[in-house]
Design a protein that fits this description.
The chain is mainly alpha-helical. Helices cover 59% and strands 0% of the residues. Helix 3 crosses helix 4. The termini are far apart. The protein binds heme C. The site of heme C has 27 residues, from helix 3 and helix 4.
Length: 126
Amino acid sequence: MSLTKEDLLRHGFTLIAAAALIAGLTSNATAAEGDGAALAAKYSCNVCHAVDHKVVGPGFRDVAKKYTGDASAPAKLAAKIKSGGSDMWGATLMPPNDVSDADTNSLIAWILSQDTEATAPYFEKK
Ligand code: HEC
């Protein structure tokens, strides 16, 4: 098989496209994660919440674990973030938060992605 200039060009473009795609995916993942933390700071969620331990409200990792496998979690959490409430984690009230729909969705995606451990113990508890 003899490679023509065109073959080389085509192959080169495929590699460049693949590299660009991978770079894009990687940077998106990082940006999404950063966005969650940045939004939690922007809306002062982190006055009451941390990722890995309870502050006033539950740690976000515990929230993610609690809702593993619950398809209605995003809707429930969106309602809680916007309207506030209590009794899921104790008697302490979470105040309502004035957060846009887009930012609420980003926050929820970030919070639910904090369950980094194997979820088997969670399923055993159910
Ligand atoms: C003044 C303290 C405070 C602030 C500020 C606060 N929270 Fe909370 N949050 C709480 C408390 C307390 C709970 C537990 C409520 C309960 O038991 O239902 C909670 C619960 C939650 C839950 C779990 C809800 C559930 O029903 O399981 C999520 C998710 C959450 N907060 C996200 C956020 C986000 C996102 C922000 C910022 C926009 C925020 N919180 C700001 C105190 C706070």
